[in-house]
Specification:
- The complex is a heterodimer of chains A (232) and B (448).
- Chain A is 36% helix and 27% strand.
- Chain A has a 6-stranded mixed β-sheet with strand order 6-7-8-3-9-10, sandwiched between helices. Chain A has a 4-stranded antiparallel β-sheet with strand order 2-1-4-5, covered by helices on one side.
- With 448 residues, chain B is α+β, with helices and mostly antiparallel strands.
- Chain B contains 15 helices and 11 strands.
- The chains are: A alpha/beta (232), B alpha+beta (448).
- At the A-B interface, helix 2, helix 3 and helix 4 of A face helix 1 and helix 11 of B.
Chain lengths: 232, 448
């Protein structure tokens, strides 16, 4: 397949972690690709390397071997500055434990990526626009009444919706979600999945990691990791 | 912008930040007070020595002294940079109190009160003749008698608050026996026309503020002392010339000028009789002259500064430990920030800003509290003395009046700067360690 067909392509990814004096090989040559607009679920047993693969795809971790091409470019060749821009503009992360900053209120958490991408004078130029987008997203996710609240004042579902809004703030090409419903009850988790489905319908490419087959069924394609490789 | 928002929030929204700020503020508070008092004491001591000596001293290493001083004084008088110059006799003597017959060894100084008061702070230290120093050696009860000015601690006692118990001068005679030396440095023989012993009457007291001087010095009229020390006669000698420069001239520059003039004078007079005595003469600034006394105090101050350097290092370590805790607790935040594309530099910048703000705020609080206490330091000590009998120094023993409480700008700036630096150093290393971790390491479930 040509590179243009894929938004992201991972080839022969190998990753191991030290465990005492020995090494645990988590990924043993994973090949994986995602086309623009796809909603892919990566699933597998606990410890199969799902999250590790997701972190490598999102440049939060580096593979021992193999390469990750994003829009045809090898992300390992990016400089530190380019890597930061890549994380800020191209990727949006949603974590199982939300990972919101307790010192910031809901709105500030959402427009944090916009602040991070601009200098102090630059921020004053885009501030109005960024705040407006943050408020629009919070309204879309039913959180307009929680704008000034701190993360610890929100429920789990609300926190995860704030995390999704933050991930989408800079309109990333790819949304990566690591067990986004893992810390939520089924009803709230279902609400989050609906949000993902709507985003995907609107054209957002999503890769979601989950260990739950029923949740994985909500994606348009399922990739199963077993014994450090993609099954089938 | 997020750097400023987060730095402020970390500072004002976290209890641990308040504790760290309190630790820094306390250290600043203590250092401000101790350094102010110590610096004040040293400066006060230096000032007293400066007053006692004048700006410059031309002095002989030998008790024999040197001659031809009168011509040199005339030369000095013509110099436009000299405000005053005064010849001085310095020697040792035994003083006997006629009433009790008790004797003790003392230093004697023979001075011309008018010129010596212009060159030094002698006149300001007199009690009865402050306004007319020419009468310093004329006892008010009988001006025809030979007077002597006693170091204040020889004659007047102090109360527990350090106040001298003055009374009207009354007739008290002292027999002073000196050890007159010949030009060659031998003890002058009896009956050689030299007066070894004289009776002098209490005319005033001198308060220099220097314990050694006030407790062991008797001032006599210049000509009387010269006779008593065997320095009068055909070949008149003195031990030193005290000089004060005109306003604006640096002491070192003035001393160099005097040294040049003296060198020329010595060259012109090297053929004179007893010119060899010039070899023992040196020109010293007041600091050099009083070095042996000041050095001890300065060493004490340096030791104090060293001790506070260790206190400072302990503070740095405390701040380091606190920041280590804060940054470790916040390592998840570092992972979050890195996951949204914030650079390592920006994270270090943010935590450094946090540390800077903490240092600035803490040192401002510590300085203000220190300043407040310094303003009221003497009142507080007085209150403690009145109610509990507590004193920092026993004023009946130590020649210290008020506790120095003038806050020096340079000292304050140094302390504040050091405190901020300590905070920033304390924050830098744990932050540096944290940013080097991969984002995923700080976002592990085990880190939550």
């Amino acid at each position: 397949m040509s590179e243009d067909k894929y938004l992201l392509e991972a080839k022969e990814i190998v990753k191991s972690y030290p465990l005492g004096v020995s090494k645990v090989e988590v990924l043993k040559g994973v090949d994986f690709s995602v086309a623009p607009g796809e909603f892919v679920a990566i699933t597998g047993a606990s410890g199969s390397g799902k999250s590790t693969l997701l972190h490598i795809l999102g440049a939060l971790d580096k593979p021992d071997q193999g390469l990750v091409n994003f829009q045809g470019k090898d992300i390992a060749k990016l400089s530190n500055g380019q890597m930061n821009k890549f994380r800020n503009h191209k990727i949006g992360f949603v974590f199982q434990f939300y990972h919101l900053l307790d010192e910031l209120n809901v709105a500030e958490n959402v427009y944090l990526p916009a602040m991070a991408s601009s200098s102090l004078p630059g921020w004053f130029k885009i501030r109005g626009k960024a705040k407006k987008r943050a408020h629009q997203m919070l309204e879309k996710f039913g959180l307009s009444h929680r704008v000034k609240h701190k993360p610890y004042q929100l429920s789990g579902g609300e926190r995860q919706r704030v995390a999704i809004a933050r991930a989408l703030m800079n309109e990333p090409v790819l949304l990566l979600a690591d067990e986004p419903t893992g810390n939520l009850d089924s009803e709230t988790g279902n609400g989050i999945l609906k949000v993902f489905e709507e985003l995907n319908k609107a054209g957002q490419t999503i890769i979601m990691v989950t260990h739950d087959d029923r949740i994985a069924q909500r994606a348009s394609r399922i990739v199963v990791l077993a014994d450090g490789k993609v099954e089938g | 912008m997020y750097k400023f928002i987060l730095a402020f929030r970390y500072l004002f929204k976290r209890r641990i930040s308040y504790l760290a700020s309190l630790a820094v503020a306390l250290c600043v508070f203590i250092v401000v007070i101790v350094m102010t008092v110590m610096t004040g004491l040293v400066d006060d001591y230096k000032q007293k020595n400066h007053k006692f000596t004048g700006d410059c001293v031309l002095t002989s290493d030998s008790l024999v002294g040197f001659g031809y001083y009168e011509d040199f004084l005339k030369i000095l008088d013509k110099q436009d940079f000299i405000y005053a110059a005064s010849p001085v006799i310095k020697s040792y003597a035994i003083i006997t109190y006629p009433d009790s017959g008790r004797s003790r060894g003392l230093e004697i100084m023979g001075v011309e009160p008018a010129s010596f008061s212009k060159a030094t702070g002698f006149g300001q230290g007199l009690y009865y003749n402050k306004n007319d120093v020419t009468q310093a050696f004329s006892p008010s009860y009988n001006t025809k008698l030979d007077g002597c000015v006693l170091g204040i601690d020889i004659w007047i006692s102090r109360d527990s608050r350090g106040k001298y118990q003055y009374s009207d001068p009354y007739k008290a005679a002292f027999v002073i026996s000196s050890f007159p030396l010949t030009v060659k440095g031998a003890l002058a023989r009896a009956g050689a026309g030299e007066e070894k012993t004289g009776t002098f009457y209490y005319s005033d007291v001198s308060h220099s503020g220097l314990a050694r001087v006030d407790g062991g010095m008797i001032y006599l009229a210049f000509d009387k002392a010269q006779q008593l020390c065997g320095m009068a006669g055909d070949f008149k000698r003195v031990n030193s010339i005290h000089i004060k420069f005109k306003e604006g001239l640096k002491v070192t520059e003035g001393c160099e000028k005097v040294a040049d003039i003296w060198a020329n004078y010595v060259a012109e007079n090297k053929q004179q009789k007893h010119a060899n005595l010039f070899d023992y003469v040196k020109i010293q600034s007041w600091k050099e002259n009083r070095r042996s006394f000041i050095a001890a105090m300065e060493k004490e101050q340096k030791m104090m500064a060293m001790m506070f350097l260790f206190v400072g290092l302990t503070t740095v370590f405390v701040v380091f430990a606190v920041f280590y805790l804060i940054v470790n607790r916040k390592s998840k935040d570092i992972g979050i920030l890195k996951s949204i594309g914030v650079s390592n530099f920006s994270i270090i910048y943010m935590y450094s800003l946090f540390a800077f703000l903490m240092g600035l705020m803490s040192s401002a609080i510590g300085s203000l509290a220190g300043w407040g206490v310094l303003l009221r330091m003497n009142d507080i000590e007085n209150w403690l003395f009145v109610h509990f009998g507590f004193q920092l120094w026993d004023r009946s023993i130590y020649a210290i009046g008020d506790i120095p409480s003038k806050l020096e700008f340079n000292v304050l700036v140094t302390i504040v700067f050091s405190a901020i630096l300590a905070c920033m150093a304390g924050a830098f290393f744990p932050t540096f360690r944290a940013v080097r971790l991969r984002p995923i390491e700080t976002l592990q479930v085990s880190q939550l």
